[in-house]
């Protein structure tokens, strides 16, 4: 079973990554097909991932796109039916490989994912701090990607993680809800990881209030009942709003020289703040440092949480369902990737158009598969040979490759084949070869036949006009881009 699974670990280079890798290297049992470590740092030296005993390791880099983008890149470059996500600050049990195999073996087809079990060790010699209690909540959380395996097909069907969630917060719940909306079930397995409490500073509770903006996005995407569906706690936002309102009212009334009303509002603010501080102090260690931190942050959290909530309401006032990137982009060859020399049989004349290399590399860097679909009727007309076509394609692959699929139609317009564009044959064959849904495929070409072939196959077509493109073809195309760079830019921006 593990031969059908890739383990994906997104990381920002924390020292805990080494602890995780050591645990995976030392664990007995069969290894998964691959371990993909996604380096989500903007820059920095190569990560130290060399450990005897690890499965084959591949390191890919996002350049600092955030946890959702990092996980997306990890599963996109994988080629196995199952993707097991692990966070870089967890420690799998010694039998994790064995348990993972047992958890995934024989699952019904409608099961889209399997969540592992999490323990959070807390200090035994004292009561836990506010931060430690918050981390302990991971042990009972649903669908967190600290240890969660998904079918790759389920991820592809919904476009993976929504990259509009910039933090490691709510992006996993959002993905779970979208997967379940497709009819997929999520189950709990029997494998275990330990999630230690990371050391942090005393102001961490202020920084995490930025997640209130993500809650707004969740509500916009999934409606007012999203918390119940995601098994998420309600929180104190209504109380935070009331306390913040009381504080602002006290200041405003004082400025308006209404002292009695200002005092009443100030007392309401003080009572709300004191109550909030008390419920955070009582279960904690109650030492001087913790009490001081709770008192100070309890005064700051209500207005900060309210601010982030309002910011989210403005930022996410209009949202559309997440589509993600396509799984595959197919390019026409002549006039799109390379300069158009009619019936070219000379590899020396294969010259990329401006921006072609950068555009194709940009797709690969995000884990999008790329291929070529090309009409070559010169073979049927006797102008060039199939060997010459293959030589030109080999030159193209040398210059801009590697392409994961190259489809060529050697027939003429009168041959009545099903592969020559605008027929969908080459697009469908490419998708079948790579096990990609045509609905998550984009075809980019310079004439109407390219976008017509895409539509006939159930894919999305983008026309990139050149001097040979007829005006009526441009007008009929549902999506247009002035250059190859612009077309790929639209794809990467989700406009496809």
TrEMBL record:
GO terms for cellular component: cytoplasm. It comes from the Bacteria. Keywords: Carbohydrate metabolism, Cytoplasm, Hydrolase, Metal-binding. It is found in: Cytoplasm. Residues 6-129 form the Glycosyltransferase 2-like domain. One of its GO terms (biological process) is carbohydrate metabolic process. Pfam families: Glycos_transf_2, Hydrolase. InterPro entries: Glyco_trans_2-like (IPR001173), HAD-like_sf (IPR036412), HAD-SF_hydro_IA (IPR006439), HAD-SF_hydro_IIIA (IPR006549), HAD_sf (IPR023214), Heptose_bisP_phosphatase (IPR004446), Histidinol-phos (IPR006543), Nucleotide-diphossugar_trans (IPR029044). One of its GO terms (molecular function) is metal ion binding. Transmembrane segments: none annotated. PANTHER family: D-GLYCERO-BETA-D-MANNO-HEPTOSE-1,7-BISPHOSPHATE 7-PHOSPHATASE. Belongs to the GmhB family. NCBIfam families: HAD-SF-IA-v1 (TIGR01549), HAD-SF-IIIA (TIGR01662), Histidinol-ppas (TIGR01656). This is D,D-heptose 1,7-bisphosphate phosphatase.
